[in-house]
Amino acid sequence: MKNLIFTTVVICLFLVSCGSAKKKLTDLVKTETTETALEYNDDLIAIQSEVDNSIVDLLSVIDGSDPVEMEDARSNTLDIIEDAIKEVEDMRDFDGKDDFKEAMIDLLKMYEDIVKNELTDIIDLVGYTEELTDDDWLKYEELYDSALAKYDEAFVDFDSFQADFADKWDFTVNRD
User: Can you tell me whether residue 97 is helix, strand or coil?
Assistant: First the structure.
């Protein structure tokens, strides 16, 4: 009989605690506002901006043609992208959905792809070649064009998602 009472109490406590956690999640979803949507957007864009700045720094170093500096900058940029992806993954979902996080992760993975592929090939070409031939310059331009095409495609997708999110939550996206 004691076991039955104990089991009943444990089950009741379990059900009450699960119900309370569900209520807290429901309350959180209900409290999303234009202000919290804008803050969430801004938090994600701040992460993206850090990655953007790192890419700009990497491109500046590539212009210098020092292979050691290029490799260091490439490695640093990949670390920043990896940290950014982890930071976004660790963020809370917004309004009970992870779609904004996933859109940002897709954008960050595009950056990672460009750094690991096109920009690494450019570093190999520029950093380890004595003098670039016409064919090397053509390859260099093709790699940049490929990177820009990947960026444009991913950014259009993200920009569209972000605009829809802003419309839904009634705020304006700052495009500075």
Answer: strand
Q: What is the pTM of this model?
A: 0.81
Tokens read off for 69: 């500096």
Q: What would the two tokens of residue 105 be?
A: 């992760």
Q: Per the structure, how many domains does the chain have?
A: 2
**Distance separating alpha carbons of residues 85 and 115, to the nearest angstrom:** 14
Are both 56 and 7 inside the same structural domain?
no
SS3 state of residue 71: helix
Whether residue 10 sits in one domain with residue 60? no
Residues 70 and 157 in one domain: yes
What the block records as the tokens of 38 is 């804008």
Domain region containing 124: 33-169
* pLDDT tens-place string over residues 40-60: 999 999 999 999 999 999 999
Task: Give the span between the Cα atoms of 128 and 105, in whole angstroms.
Answer: 32
Looking at the chain, how many residues does it have? 176
- Using a 10 angstrom Cβ sphere, with 0-12 exposed, 13-18 middle and 19 or more buried, the burial of residue 112 is middle
**Do residues 21 and 67 share a domain?**
no
